[in-house]
Amino acid sequence: MNKILMFVEDKLVPPLNKMANQHHLNAVKNGMMVTVPLTIIGSIFLLIPNIPIDPIQSFFEPYAAMITTVNTITIGIVGLVGAASVAYYFALGYTDIKIDPLITAFVSVAAFLLATLTDEYAINLELFGTKGLFTAILVALMSGMIMHFFQKRDLVIHFPDTVPPLVSKSFMSLVPAFVILTIIWIIRVILGINVNQILMDCFSPFVFALNTLPGFLVFMFIRSMLWSVGIHGGAVLAVADPFFLTMFGANAAAFAAGTQPPYITASGFTMFVFLGGGGATLPLVLMMIRSKEKGFSTLGKLCLPASIFEINEPVVFGVPLVMNPYMMIPYTLSTLILSAGTYLLMLFNIIGRPVANIPWTIPPLFSHYLVTGGNIPAVIWGGISLLIAGCIYYPFFKAMERQRLAVEKRIGA
């Protein structure tokens, strides 16, 4: 096991860390984070008239259409916001030359509007949401790269120093902005190429794969193994976030329409897997509190408040779980078993599917109720999941505890 850990640390960690900090991936990750408040607010307004309690539903039923307008708007502009936010962070990430991120963001939005025009050259409002997200990301990255290309080679308009900096900066972006919009105009209007449809066709296999049990288990296995060796799995695999967000958009729309949500692994699914944080470590913290080993007991008490609110870095690096042969197996195994169990229960409609995007710091059980739109069986499964995770961690934790107690005994002797 030690040889495996050394191999991972020496050979795999450096390139994976480099990937986690890759400019393009960072821009997508940070840009998608900007959309989170919108999706959370929209989800709240979607849940209000759909709380599965008859008196509450009856009260809100006459006003349901009015209330869910907030959801329609917030979820309906995720793609538009993504076009701006991804371009903004992409421009901001260049270190060799300074590019105005705000101008890049606005140019990206204009390019996105052009790229998503209908065949009649009208603005396609339908693609402002998650359906146009892949196009938004592509256009944002392209806008940033062209801006960088022109400014680095000084292919821009310059003004004397006497001209106000704001005016000079605006005209400096004129040539690259013209090139960006002209390219998109030629592709969509002159050549009639439906960029969004092509991207949807290209990425649909990935969406399909991530919504299958084998595909999602592979994804979660890689994520857990990365965390086990000290690499932020979420950062490395952030490229998958737009796929899950696209699924969420479809689920939210279906829930609002009163139909069956089509996707299982949409954003919110991991609320059933990350109980107390990645690896379902809340049961482990509770075991630590009751441990006979003083170090574990003290650390468990310190970590409990954070773990309840899904923050488990103190556990991951305090125990530690990172590079720990005792904990690598249960950390990964609990993730896979809970993912498989949750997937199958949703597949057979025993528990509800994700229809709301909620803050990831909401404690387990409460989060399960909210993310499924008030599904009680989902809450019951959340409680069972805590017990399952506890059973998985128990033998491994006890083995580690016995080792530490033996060391304490030798030191005391």
TrEMBL record:
Entries under PROSITE patterns matching the protein: PTS_EIIC_TYPE_3 (PS51105)
GO CC terms: plasma membrane
UniProt keyword terms in alphabetical order: Cell membrane, Membrane, Sugar transport, Transmembrane, Transmembrane helix, Transport
Domain of life of the source: Bacteria
Residue span(s) of domain PTS EIIC type-3: 8-396
Subcellular location: Cell membrane
GO BP term, example: phosphoenolpyruvate-dependent sugar phosphotransferase system
TM region(s), chain numbering: 31-51, 63-90, 102-118, 130-150, 171-191, 203-222, 234-257, 263-289, 333-356, 376-396
GO molecular function: protein-N(PI)-phosphohistidine-sugar phosphotransferase activity
Its membrane topology: Multi-pass membrane protein
Role: The phosphoenolpyruvate-dependent sugar phosphotransferase system (PTS), a major carbohydrate active -transport system, catalyzes the phosphorylation of incoming sugar substrates concomitant with their translocation across the cell membrane.
PANTHER family: PTHR33989, PTS SYSTEM N,N'-DIACETYLCHITOBIOSE-SPECIFIC EIIC COMPONENT (PTHR33989:SF4)
Name this protein carries in UniProt: Permease IIC component
